[in-house]
Design a protein that fits this description.
The protein is an all-alpha fold. It has 18 helices and no strands. It has helices at residues 2-5, 11-33, 35-42, 46-59, 63-73, 79-96, 100-129, 133-162, 171-197, 204-207, 211-247, 251-279, 281-289, 293-298, 304-318, 321-332, 337-365, 368-375.
Length: 396
C-alpha cells in the first residue's frame, strides 16, 4: 500500500493493542487450562472436552471473516471494547456454570468476543505498522501468544488451588482491556478520513497474477494454516494429559510445562515478523512449518526432559509462521485487510477447535500417546510452501 509505506511505525498504538490482545487471549487460554479440573469434577470424557473447545473455537472463528468483511466497508472504531464486554460476560458465566450446557454457553460467549476483537485489532496493527507490517503483526500477535502462555500459569496458581469459581477474578482483565482500548478507538476514528481518501497501489508482482493464481495462493496459505493449528491443537489441549499419562507428573507441573511451550510460541512470533520483514515472508513460512517437523516427529519418543526441550524448540519455530502468512495474504488482497485478517484468525481458531475435537475423539478411541504420534506428521505439510508465488522483491 503506497500511502502506508511512507508512514512511521506507531509503536504506542501497537503496544496498547498488543497489551489488549494479551489480556484477551489470557482470558481465553484459561478454557483449556481448566480441562483437568472440570473433567474430574463433572466426569467428562475426552470427547466432551473436545466439544467444549470446538464450540469456543467455532464461535470465535466463523464470525471473524464476516466481521472483517463488514469492517472493510464500515469500520467500527469502538468494536474492540464491545468485544471485551462479551468476553467479560462469558468469564462471569463460566465461573458459575455447573453443568455441561452452561459451560458450552459460556465458552461460546467468550468466542463471540474474540470474533469481534481480532479483525479490527489486526487492521489497526496493520495501519500503525507503516513499512514494518510483519513486525507490527508480530507485536500484535505476541500479545496474544503471551496471554496464552500466562493463562495456564495463572490457572495453576489461582484456579487449580481455589476451584472453578475463582475464574471470576479474570473478569478484571476484561474491564482493564475494554477501558485501555477506548483511546485506540478514538485514534482509529481520527484516521478514517485518511483511509477513505488514500489510493491503494497493489504490489506489481501481485498485479501480474491472475485471480485464479491469487485464489490458489490463498488456498495454499489455508493448507499451511491447517497444518500449523491442527498440530497446535494437540499441544494446547492435550499436552498436559500427555505429560500426566506418560510421565506421571501432577497437574501443576503439567501446566508449567504448557506455560514453557506457550512462552516459546510468544518469543518465536516476534522473531518471525522481524525476519520476514528483512529476508522475506516466504522463507519464514518455509522454515517455520517444515522446520518444526523433525522436532515434532521426535517428541513422542523421548524422555521427560527432552520432551520439554523439544516442545520449547517446536514452539519457537512453528509460531513464526502466522505473521508471515497474514501479511502475505493481505498483500494478495490489499483492499480486503479486514476480511483476510478475519479469515486467517478465524482459521486459526476454527481449525484449532476442529483439531481439538478430532483429537479428543481419537484419544477416547485409542490413547493420548497415539494422537501425539499422529499429529507429529502435520508439520510435513509445510512442503506446499513451494507452490506459493514469489511476490516480494529480492532482498540484498
Amino acid at each position: 500500500m503506497e500511502a502506508t509505506t511512507k508512514e512511521k511505525t506507531i509503536f504506542k498504538i501497537l503496544i496498547v493493542i498488543s497489551f489488549a490482545h494479551l489480556l484477551n487471549d489470557m482470558m481465553q487460554s484459561i478454557i483449556p487450562s481448566i480441562y483437568p479440573i472440570i473433567k474430574d469434577k463433572y466426569g467428562f470424557t475426552f470427547g466432551q472436552i473436545g466439544i467444549i473447545t470446538l464450540v469456543f473455537q467455532m464461535t470465535s472463528s466463523i464470525l471473524q471473516p464476516f466481521v472483517g468483511r463488514y469492517a472493510d466497508k464500515h469500520p467500527q472504531p469502538f468494536s474492540l471494547s464491545i468485544g471485551m464486554i462479551f468476553t467479560l460476560l462469558g468469564i462471569v458465566l463460566l465461573s458459575f456454570a455447573n453443568n455441561y450446557a452452561l459451560i458450552l454457553l459460556a465458552v461460546g460467549v467468550i468466542g463471540c468476543g474474540s470474533s469481534i476483537f481480532h479483525p479490527e485489532a489486526s487492521r489497526i496493527a496493520q495501519m500503525a505498522g507503516g513499512l514494518k507490517k510483519g513486525l507490527a503483526q508480530s507485536i500484535f500477535q505476541v500479545g496474544g501468544n503471551g496471554g496464552s502462555a500466562i493463562g495456564p500459569l495463572l490457572a495453576a496458581v489461582i484456579i487449580i488451588p481455589f476451584g472453578q469459581h475463582s475464574i471470576i477474578w479474570f473478569s478484571i482483565a476484561a474491564l482493564i482491556a475494554g477501558i485501555t482500548l477506548l483511546p485506540v478507538g478514538r485514534w482509529y476514528k481520527k484516521q478514517l478520513h485518511r483511509i477513505k481518501s488514500k489510493v491503494i497501489t497493489p504490489n506489481p508482482a501481485v498485479l501480474a497474477l491472475s485471480n485464479r493464481r491469487i485464489h490458489w495462493a490463498i488456498f495454499i496459505l489455508c493448507v499451511l494454516t491447517f497444518s500449523k493449528y491442527f498440530y497446535m491443537a494437540s499441544m494446547t489441549s492435550y499436552f498436559t494429559f500427555f505429560l500426566i499419562n506418560k510421565f506421571g507428573v501432577d497437574i501443576q507441573v503439567s501446566q508449567l510445562c504448557l506455560f514453557a511451550f506457550m512462552g516459546a510460541v510468544a518469543v518465536g512470533t516476534v522473531l518471525g515478523g522481524s525476519i520476514g520483514d528483512k529476508y522475506g515472508r516466504k522463507y519464514v513460512i518455509w522454515g517455520s512449518i517444515l522446520g518444526a517437523a523433525p522436532f515434532a516427529l521426535a517428541l513422542p519418543y523421548v524422555n521427560f526432559t527432552l520432551t520439554i526441550i523439544l516442545a520449547v524448540i517446536i514452539g519457537l519455530v512453528i509460531s513464526s509462521a502466522f505473521s508471515a502468512i497474514l501479511v502475505y495474504a493481505t498483500e494478495l488482497k490489499p483492499n480486503k485487510v479486514g476480511m483476510m485478517a478475519g479469515l486467517f484468525f478465524g482459521l486459526n481458531f476454527g481449525l484449532g477447535g476442529i483439531g481439538s475435537a478430532f483429537f479428543g475423539w481419537l484419544a477416547d478411541k485409542t490413547s493420548i500417546e497415539f494422537i501425539f504420534q499422529i499429529s507429529t506428521l502435520l508439520p510435513l505439510l509445510g512442503i506446499v510452501t513451494a507452490f506459493l508465488p514469489n511476490i516480494e522483491p529480492k532482498r540484498k
